[in-house]
Amino acid sequence: MKAYIFPGQGAQFEGIGKDLYDAHKEARDLFAEADNILNYKISEIMFNGTAEQLRQTKVTQPAIFIHSVITARLLGTDFQPEMVAGHSLGEISALTAARSLSFYDGLKLVYARAMAMQRACEAKPSTMAAILGLEDHVVEEICSDVDGIVVAANYNSPGQLVISGEWTAVEHACAKAKEAGAKRAMLLPVGGAFHSPLMEMAREELAAAIEKTNFEVPRCAIYQNVTGKAERNPANIKKNLIAQLTGPVKWTQSVRSMIADGATEFIEVGPGKVLQGLVKKIDPTVEAKSA
């Protein structure tokens, strides 16, 4: 069975989407539609913006979503997903590619999400860090023992867990992780503490936008970040999508669930190859490749 997977923040690169624009009329039409939906020329920033401009959450998230959804559309009849999943932001790309959301509604939600997260980041200085080489339960215990807010945020693959929270709490947890034998414990160049309680303000904002948006039954099951399990019911999809901003990305669990449900081939749709690498670390026996 084919599982299509959609990347999250961090997959952007300078000139993102320009090759698609130059080669396909359908891509040009969708870029023009995206510019109209957002009321500014995001295509210009994607094609010509600096790395610094592309790192801004309000640019990064729409850019990756646009690239991912256009890539899925350009697959045409070859895009026959039997299951989909997306990492963080990629969950909205997956829902749009699976026709649960229209391109218009998907992009509107992504932009609302990005702006809400940016405001939450500015309200309280916070950060994330990658912990490599420890078992998940060890990292979870370290987080629970540290004063202040720090939580397990991204279960990326066995031995790779990202933590998220207040600066001092994250730094303290990194030090404890190194003492516990972590190969690496490094702060990440992100704007704030995504997938932690510090995103509560953003969650409330996004919840209002999601409640007003029409979700259809997707053409196949989506494996959602906060549960790691298959879902097709629009009401549950909405609830899980709202919970995702303050809840963890259970990527390892999602991939394992998809494999248990029959996935043998994972196809990454959108910029970068990060998710393929994670899939291979989770289970080296399955095939993982770019669309």
Concise summary:
The chain has helices spanning 18-23, 25-38, 42-48, 51-55, 57-74, 90-97, 103-123, 136-145, 167-179, 200-211, 234-243, 251-260, 274-282, and strands at 2-6, 83-86, 126-132, 150-157, 160-166, 184-187, 221-223, 230-231, 265-268, 287-290. The protein is α/β, with parallel strands linked by helices.
Outline the secondary-structure elements.
Layout: E1 2-6, H1 18-23, H2 25-38, H3 42-48, H4 51-55, H5 57-74, E2 83-86, H6 90-97, H7 103-123, E3 126-132, H8 136-145, E4 150-157, E5 160-166, H9 167-179, E6 184-187, H10 200-211, E7 221-223, E8 230-231, H11 234-243, H12 251-260, E9 265-268, H13 274-282, E10 287-290
Parallel strand pairs: 1-2, 1-9, 2-7, 9-10
Antiparallel strand pairs: 3-5, 3-6, 4-5, 7-8
Helix pairs in contact: 2-5, 2-7, 5-6, 5-7, 6-7, 7-10, 8-9, 10-11
Verbal overview:
The protein is α/β, with parallel strands linked by helices and 291 residues long. The protein has two domains: 2-121 and 197-290, Malonyl-Coenzyme A Acyl Carrier Protein, domain 2; 126-187, 2-Layer Sandwich (Alpha-Beta Plaits). Helices cover 49% and strands 16% of the residues. It has helices spanning 18-23, 25-38, 42-48, 51-55, 57-74, 90-97, 103-123, 136-145, 167-179, 200-211, 234-243, 251-260, 274-282, and strands at 2-6, 83-86, 126-132, 150-157, 160-166, 184-187, 221-223, 230-231, 265-268, 287-290. The protein has a six-stranded mixed sheet with strand order 8-7-2-1-9-10, sandwiched between helices. The chain has a four-stranded antiparallel sheet with strand order 4-5-3-6. The longest helix has 21 residues, at 103-123. The chain is globular and about 55 Å long. The relative contact order is 0.17.
